[in-house]
Amino acid sequence: MRPLPLVLLFAATRSALAAAAEPFSLLGIAAGKNGASLSVPLQIVILLTLMTLLPAAVMSITPFLRITIVLHFLRQALGTQSTPSNQVLLGLSLFLSLLVMQPVAADMYHQGWEPLENGRLTPAQALEQGSLPLHHFLARFAREKDIRLFIEISHATPPRTPADLEMKILIPAYILSELKTGFQIGAVLFLPFLIIDLVVASVTLSIGMMQLPPVMISAPFKILLFVLVDGWNLVIGSLMKSFYS
Q: Residues 163-188: pLDDT tens digits?
């Protein structure tokens, strides 16, 4: 009967040899010995690069951009300075963006990542197939005027269909369209609170209250109006419905 340490050593050696015989895989890309695939250090560099660009992607090519702009406009219109705080607004924007993008991310996973893991697609084919749901999402909200602008800037050939648009044109067009939409919604939110400010300022000037800033008087009325109409529900509900229409 073999001693237990020798048995364990034999089993560990056999497992190590079996693992060495199989190609190592990272990010779903096999690192073979023939040099045809990416090396492990290069895959790690690619992974770290993607993680560095992830925050910029989340802020730019998701509903996060429009939601944060509207919420910051709303806070300025209420005149509450730093309430809610930036952390609260960014956290709310992030979770709302995840809610909207969850079906898109699921489609990207099923169309790109799963076939890559199963070996049915090459990395280039998986990238192309996985980007199709995101391409469709961006094309829905990018304005034709903005798309035409970036086609003229890049001197690209005008596409025959929206599916022929390149991502290098579609992404900046989407960002520009979201900035315009966010500012439009923010301007509309400002109007009722601006009216309250004007009314309060007129009343205070008419009764001779020159030393008291009108903002100190109008702020409680604006907050009270916002609470009475259930403003958070209306604003968030309207924002979310704008992405599902």
A: 788 888 888 899 999 999 999 998 88
Tokens encoding 6: 């020798």
- What is the residue type of 63? P
Which residues lie across from 30 on neighbouring strands?
25
Identify whether the C-beta of residue 61 lies closer than 8 Å to the C-beta of residue 40: no
Residue 49 CA neighbour count, 13 Å, CB half: 7
Kindly report whether the global pTM for this prediction surpasses the value 0.90. no
- Which residues does 155 contact at the CB level (< 8 Å), separation at least 6? none
pLDDT tens, 31-71?
Answer: 444 444 566 777 788 778 878 887 887 788 889 999 999 99
Q: Are 144 and 119 in contact (CB under 8 A)?
A: no
- The vertex-89 CA angle with 83 and 94, nearest 5°, equals 170
Specify the DSSP class assigned to residue 26: E
Which of 5, 39, 34 minimizes the C-alpha distance to 24? Answer: 39
Report residue 61: phi and psi, to 5°: -110, 25
Q: CA 106 to CA 50: how far, in whole Å?
A: 19
Residue 84 to residue 181: CA distance in whole angstroms: 22
